[in-house]
Amino acid sequence: MTKKTPTPEAVVDVPGLRTIRRGNLRCVIADLNVGGVCLYSPVEKTSAAFPQTDDVRYLFAPNHYHNKGIAEHAKAFQNAQLVSSNAARPRLEKVTGCRFGDLSGLRQALPDCVSLAEPEGLKTGEVWMIVRAGAEIVWVVTDTFYGLLEKDDARARPGFLKTFPTYGLKDKQRFSDWVRQRLAEEVPTMIVPCHGETVRGAALDREIDALLETL
After folding, report:
1. pLDDT at residue 76 greater than cutoff 80
2. Could you tell me which of 78, 110, 79, 103 has the C-alpha nearest to residue 89?
3. Is 182 left (phi over 0), alpha (psi -120 to 50) or beta?
4. How would DSSP label each residue in 54-105?
5. Domain that holds residue 64
6. HSE on the CB side for 66, CA within 13 Å?
7. CATH code at 199?
8. Of the candidates 69, 46, 44, which has an alpha carbon nearest to the alpha carbon of residue 18?
9. Residue 78 predicted with pLDDT over 60
10. Has residue 1 been placed in a domain?
11. Does the residue 4 lie in any domain?
12. Using the 8-state DSSP alphabet, how is residue 167 labeled?
């Protein structure tokens, strides 16, 4: 039996943000202020899901591990610009054979409610999108957190991938300090990770702080 191609779904209460999921992996689709969309972490075998009305202008590899969907999407959307952080670019270009630009053009193309943040203390060159929409403050993340939903859980909660401390972290204290500083400035109401479930809650600062203590 042929598997159906996944379809994009809106992020509830966050206009201009959609996701598309295949298995446990998620791509985030962000509307641009210049028209068209940016794909944050394109996922393999999902390029056919985007209708012709979606003008894909940016393919964003948000760290150097999330690259397996790049070649497929670059072929499907030949006018799209491939972008990454400076830190992620060397490995991305080596692994994919593609050329990646910096984030300056994307920063200008994103609406005012969306900003980019580069966590400190990582090996991977990861970049988050921070989305502010009404009462919602959304952290769109790659491998730093994932959404854990176990059998008896009433809601998903933030967790770390088992591989993150070894392959993601360069300096756990610097990373922890950076995240806590973000939390001191504003507490997210939602985390949309590339792995697992979307996490919502009124006390995410306490959950994230407790999680950092496990590193």
Report:
1. yes
2. 103
3. alpha
4. --EEEEE--SSS--TTHHHHHHH-TTPEEE--TTTHHHHHHHH----B-SHH
5. 9-212
6. 31
7. 3.60.15.10
8. 46
9. yes
10. no
11. no
12. I
**Number of separate domains in the chain:** 1
Q: What is the pTM of this model?
A: 0.95
**Residue (of 1, 52, 2, 62) closest to 27 by Cα position:** 62
Residue 194 lies in a domain: yes
Instruction: Give the largest CA-CA distance in the chain.
Output: 50
Percent of the chain scoring above 70 in pLDDT: 98
Distance CA 28, CA 43 (A): 9
- At 154-205, the pLDDT tens digits run 889 999 999 999 999 999 999 999 999 999 999 999 999 999 999 999 899 9
Token pair for residue 28?
């985030």
Token pair belonging to 20? 């598309």
